[in-house]
Amino acid sequence: MTDFINCLARSTGKVYLVNKLKQEELHKYLHKELAAYRARGGKVYKLSERIGRQADGTWVFPDCQISADGRFITESESGWVFNHALIAKEKIPLPKINQQQEPEVLKRLVSAMRNFFGEAGFMPAFFTMAFTIAGLFYDEIQEEEGFFPVLGLYGDAGTGKTIAAVTALSLLGLDHRAKLHKTSESAYHERFKLMGGLTQFLDDPDKAQIDWVCQQVKTQYGGGSRFVRENNQDPHSPFMVASNYSIADDDSITLSRLIRLLFEETPNPAAFPELHSASRLCSCVLPELVKFGYPQHLVKDLESRLITKLPKAHARLASSLALVGYYAFRLAELSGAVSEAEVWQYLSLLCGEANEDESKKSSLDDFIERLLILRCGSRRYANANRNWRVELSLNYGGWQQRKSKLQITGSLLAWCLVFDVALF
Question: Is residue 129 a contact partner of residue 279, using CB atoms and an 8 Å limit?
Fold first, then answer.
């Protein structure tokens, strides 16, 4: 009843409307009018579920729509209507998509990025953009793969992390006002629920938030849902965070779910006006980016090539880097301003850093993690009256001891029980 009155008020421009119909009478009236509408050949429209990508792949924004195959379309073509009630109670940023064609604006943007970020900062900024493009297909990737990595930008203050993230968001018609700040838990998750395929950016969390951020990384990686008071908050967008310090250095579980990009060089402020100017126009390429889709087999092919470069890294890293790396190659090709060799060089650098991160783990962390792996790996055991023998491969500071046999007795056996390691 209230929604009906509010709808009439918006459509007529009247501030106050009085309804004298009872609820049953109103329902009968609505059914009668709907039946007459359909009899006249009227078309049934759907209210958008969120801002951005809908369940069928159509992109719905306040001022335009884009088809799943990357074309600007009308409401009558799509059957979708933007639902303004979605943002009535939440402070949700609204993308503004540039519908005017801007020749070579992407090449101009990438060239401006190279001038602004410099040699050391350009590729981290470029891969930030590639992550945002991969995020366009967040729902599809989560459905197919069961994961979507989190992007972590880190480095000293003033190295361009925030500008890199905001530049990437400009492809989606967003700007610095789309950044996440301190907010309630419910409002935070509501953003991920109501924005589809539009990367969410948390800028510079303070150290008191680090534990919370690490928990969000673990949750967002697997698309974890939050259910509060009959409100099911399923995420539909990926997550990236920028910080002046590296997040999760001492947390291997969180680290394996992150793609970390290091910013080291102070940008060139004289090149910022050109970067800002290009970023205000570049959302016109969004239909071209939507055309990329998610070709799973090509991403898997790249993953198989990266695995050989990641002998010491966690198994998750090859999948995560392949996902972002694929869209970096596509973006390089579309822009015409970055070579394939540059993308490969930076991917190799990220693989090397991932190997180093894994080798820094303490032997105790490595030991416990391998015990957990035993739950789904091969196991050996002796009889009930003998000590358990577990074959492990331990890494002590780079020295690899193959098939080292440990006698697990007393407290170590208790460790196995605590972590629910079934050895038989």
Answer: no
Q: To which H or E segment does residue 154 belong? A: strand 150-155
Q: How far apart are CA 129 and CA 325, in angstroms?
A: 11
Q: Where in the chain is the domain with CATH 3.40.50.300?
A: 105-358
Amino acid at position 61, single letter:
F
Contact 127, 133 (CB under 8 A): no
* Domain covering 105-358, topology: Rossmann fold (3.40.50)
| pTM tops 0.85 | no
Roughly what angle, to the nearest 10 degrees, separates helices 411-418 and 363-373?
60
159-196 CB burial, b ≥16 within 10 A, e <16: bbbbbbbbbbbbbbbbbeebbbeeeeeeebbbbbbbbb
Q: How are beta strands 51-53 and 388-396 bridged, if at all?
A: unpaired
DSSP string, 103-115: TTHHHHHHHHHHH
Compute, in degrees rounded to 10, the torsion defined by CA atoms 275, 280, 286, 288.
Answer: -60
Bridge-based pairing state of the strands 258-263 and 388-396: unpaired
The dihedral built from the CA positions of residue 307, 313, 314 and 319, taken in this order, carries a sign that is: negative
Report d(CA 87, CA 92) in Å as an integer: 6
Q: Can you say how many angstroms the Cα of residue 91 is from the centroid of all Cα atoms in its chain?
A: 20
The predicted-structure confidence for 253-299, as pLDDT tens digits, reads as follows: 888 999 999 999 999 999 999 999 999 999 999 999 999 999 999 99
Angle, alpha carbons 274-276-281 (nearest 5°): 100
Place of tokens 């040699």: 119
Predicted pLDDT at 171: 97
Rounded-to-integer distance, Cα 314 and Cα 325, Å: 17
Tokens of 84: 């303004």
pLDDT band at residue 358 under the 50/70/90 scheme: low
Closest to 220 in 3D by CA, of 181, 252, 184, 259: 259
315 falls in which pLDDT band (50, 70, 90)? confident
Per-residue pLDDT tens over the stretch 198-250: 999 999 988 888 888 899 999 999 988 887 766 778 999 999 999 998 787 77
Query: Distance between CA 222 and CA 147 in Å, rounded?
Result: 5
